[in-house]
Amino acid sequence: MNVFDKSIKDFFKMKFLLLSTLPFLLSFFILGAVFLYGGSEFLNMLLNPSSGNGIEQVDPNIHPIISYILTFALVKWVFVTFFYLFGTILIVLISVIIGVIVIGFFTPYIVKNIQEDSYPNYIRSQMELKEVIWLYAKTFLIFIFLIIVCIPLLLFPGVNLFIFHVPFYYLFHNLLLIDIGSNIEDLQRYKMIVEKEKKSFMISTLIFYVLSLIPIVGLFLQVFFVIFLTHLFFEKSIQISQANQG
Q: What's the predicted TM-score (pTM) here?
């Protein structure tokens, strides 16, 4: 039985199906509240003249051209459309990361169950806490650096449609691998497996990232992503060990 078949079989076990609802529910409530209240207040601040801070409050004496442009209803419509379009894209991207973080708390449980059911003879050697914290910290620092690098590229038409996926995919990919790998191998062997099987892991996480961009579906499948990558990690580790022995 291959990795995908094993993963599907495990995913449809009741304990994992129930677990799949958690990333969706938590992400829905957190982001729904932020976008509904925070987003509405921000938009009202920009568009409502009575707020004293809206776009209609631009001083015509200081900025006559901008003030004149903002009197057109079309300009307001474009601004509101852009605000909600960009906000929706950002909400989806953030929800992907929140989903990964939420399911990360349950990854040890998933890994343990899969190891006991499918790889009972495999001896796991987990990383030390300080090593895991360092991997997370390094990942988030690089993520922030990539965000900063990508911001100026938003000015370029075409490029701005996909450029922000680069840092978010980087974060998605690394959080999943750290969550899973730290519960299976020590730091040295983890780095060796991830480097040696980089292509397999990147193809898998790239497909999962694209699926995660589908609202609701991506959040519900977070558990499947962890199950699949756990099986893949075990299988690759076993293959490497057998190759070294041979």
A: 0.78
